[in-house]
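Much of what follows relies on a compact textual record of a protein's fold. Each token is a code from a learned vocabulary of local backbone shapes. The record below shows the convention in full.
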Amino acid sequence: QLVESGGGLVQPGSSLRLSCGASGFTLDYYSIGWFRQAPGKEREGVSCIANSDGKTYYGDSVKGRFTISRDNAKNTVYLQMNNLKFEDTAIYYCAARAGPACPHHIDEYDYFGQGTQVTVSS
């Protein structure tokens, strides 16, 4: 089971750190992706960190603002989100996939959580 936390209501330009924790399995062996879905829009990939070499990937809309990292000792993956914009408002999901790949679609992952709401509003 994956559980996301850290969402909230913030103003533009603010920062949030999302956490993705796992119970029942160890995230070390999984590549972890973050996805988001805004109302009326398709789900999109935000970022991913591979299990093997820790290589990271980012969507164009978040490059330079978001940072993904993992703390295997805490069995947690983080998404640091800086300089948040209105268009970052969405439900954020983390997903885990065994192996080194970071697929673009959440359906290709083995597990995903229930999501955490991020709202950027003035």
Remarks:
- The mean pLDDT is 95.
- The longest strand covers residues 90-98.
- The CA atoms of residues 97 and 109 lie 5 Å apart.
